[in-house]
Amino acid sequence: MGWADPAVLILTSLADGPKHGYAMTADIAEQTGVTLGPGTLYGALSRLEERGFIQAMPGEQRRRPYRITAAGATVLRERLTAMRSLVRTGLSRLDAVVA
C-alpha cells in the first residue's frame, strides 16, 4: 500500500462509518484531494472485500454501502502507524538539511 493507495484511502473513509461508493469518493476527495475513478474504486472495494477488510451491507436502491471490518481496522492501523513513522523520519531529515 502506497502514498495514495486506494485501499488505505477507502479504509480511512470507512473508519468513521459505512458509506456507499459515491460517499466514499466524495469523502476521499474532500480529505485528500485525490479523486478515485469508478474502476479504481470498485476494483479496490472488490479486493478489500475478498481479503475480509470490508463488508458489503444490504443495498439501498442502487447504492450499496460498505463497512470496515475488525481485520480492516487492524490493517489500517498498521499502515497508518508505518506511515506516521515514515513521515517523522522524512521530516526529521528535511529539517536537518534545511537547518
Question: How would you sum up this structure, described in words?
Answer:
This protein is mainly alpha-helical and 99 residues long. The chain has one domain: Arc Repressor Mutant, subunit A (Orthogonal Bundle). 64% of the residues lie in helices and 6% in strands. A two-stranded antiparallel ribbon has the order 1-2. The chain is elongated, with a radius of gyration of 15 Å.
Number of strands: 2
Percent helix, as a range, is: 55-70%
Q: Strands across the major sheet, in which order?
A: 1-2
Instruction: Give average pLDDT, whole number.
Output: 92
Radius of gyration: 15 Å
Classified in CATH, the superfamily is Winged helix-like DNA-binding domain superfamily/Winged helix DNA-binding domain
Q: Please indicate the count of domains.
A: 1
CATH uppermost class:
Mainly Alpha
User: What CATH architecture label applies?
Assistant: Orthogonal Bundle
Q: Look up the CATH topology.
A: Arc Repressor Mutant, subunit A
Order of helices and strands: HHHEEH
Structure keywords:
mainly alpha; 99 residues; elongated; Arc Repressor Mutant, subunit A; two-stranded antiparallel ribbon; single chain
Sequence-ordered SSE layout with sheet pairings:
Elements: H1 6-14, H2 21-32, H3 38-50, E1 54-56, E2 66-68, H4 70-98
Antiparallel strand pairs: 1-2
Helix pairs in contact: 1-2
What's this entry about, in short?
The protein has 99 residues and is mostly helical. It has helices at residues 6-14, 21-32, 38-50, 70-98, and strands at residues 54-56, 66-68. It has a two-stranded antiparallel sheet.
